[in-house]
Design goal:
Arc Repressor Mutant, subunit A, mainly alpha, Tetracycline Repressor, domain 2, 68% helix, homodimer, 226 residues
Chain lengths: 226, 226
């Protein structure tokens, strides 16, 4: 979700981009505003003109991250506009790619770990973001006709959150690196629960969605393919 | 995994206990050695006599945490000495209880987030601990006769790691708080893959697997609880 550093960003955007990079590398508490201003090619006075405090800058960075996530969801929708099930598989593929691409985990989750105080002003941004991501995935599971959509969304959310934090501890040697096959097996198990109890009209709808599912680890029973 | 504060601890133990408490509350980077020494009822000179640096103290805290985990595994083994499957359920119950008891997550995972530098001396302690926990759970799954023991252990590890970091973001409103039922459903699905496949011809093996995956949410057969 990084943007190319070559474009001539305005100071505000440059500060946010620099801060996000530095926060990821060193932790939010591991870097000060002086370093951020310097590396963004500006100065502390300009930084404080745009952001009243380091906390304000942290919040702006998290909101910028949330905007990237919005673009991520749009790209998932566009990838398979007619198949929510294929979108779920695309979600698995892309979040896994993001996780493997940078072992420093999710900016929002990391911020929650670092900003331990209950009253920190960034906490409502983190909470709202995490709930929205989970609810969006649950809606996608419902659209895909998954019987226990909320439960599947919960499981997938915990698996990816666990994978990202696990890879920060053990890198690519641990279970985090195997997220994609673990998630696909869970999806397959939930998807198989669905078809028998659907009326015929919905059945055809569901079969179109099942087609999009790609590479599951065990074949569906024939009855479930209908 | 906290010990009672009333016992007269020696300075070294008192410093470790105080540091662990403060690191949990404020983050490792959110608290300095002066505060730790003061709150442990000692002084910085004594602290540095026991621990050459803050990094050494961090490592000692993480090793102390690992010792607690060893006691945790022993209590699980003793709870159901003759039933690895019952021990798995006990693992779920206790890790869930720990997670809900203190929403600040796992000390090891939090340290991995905060100590972002690859070369930080605490990283090998974290890595060794996380791998050992995962391997111990996998052994327990094997002992319980789970066909895909490694995969179940991976899934459970990611679910609990995800739950603990998720609860730091969204508290008890999100999927983290539902860990216990999500984990039990996953265990049930894996456990059901086992019994029907013996004696194994390839054909029956395959059909048992498909059957096992079909009903994720049905109760475990009595035989699997043993």
């Amino acid at each position: 979700m990084e943007t190319c550093g070559a474009s001539p960003l305005r100071p505000r955007e440059r500060i946010i981009k620099t801060a996000r990079d530095l926060f990821r590398k060193h932790g939010i508490r591991g870097v000060g505003v002086d370093t951020i201003a310097e590396q963004a090619g500006t100065n502390k006075m300009t930084l404080y003109r745009h952001f009243g405090s380091k906390d304000d800058l942290i919040i702006a960075c998290l909101q910028d991250f949330a905007n990237d996530a919005e673009a991520f969801w749009q790209s998932i929708e566009m990838s398979h506009p007619d198949s929510p099930m294929a979108q779920i598989h695309e979600w698995v593929r892309i979040v896994s790619e993001c996780a493997l691409d940078d072992l420093r985990g999710c900016d929002m989750a990391n911020a929650a770990v670092e900003l331990a105080e209950d009253a920190h002003p960034a906490r409502h941004v983190i909470e709202e973001f995490k709930m929205a991501q989970r609810n969006r995935l649950a809606q996608l599971c419902r659209d895909a006709g998954i019987e226990k959509a909320d439960q599947l969304a919960d499981t997938l959310c915990l698996l990816i959150e666990g994978a990202r934090v696990n890879m920060q501890s053990v890198g690519l040697e641990g279970p985090g690196a195997r997220f994609i096959s673990l998630a696909e097996d869970v999806i397959a198990a939930f998807a198989r629960e669905k078809p028998e109890r659907k009326p015929a009209t919905l059945h055809r709808h569901a079969s179109a969605k099942i087609k999009g599912r790609g590479q599951l680890h065990a074949p569906l029973p024939a009855a479930n393919r209908a």
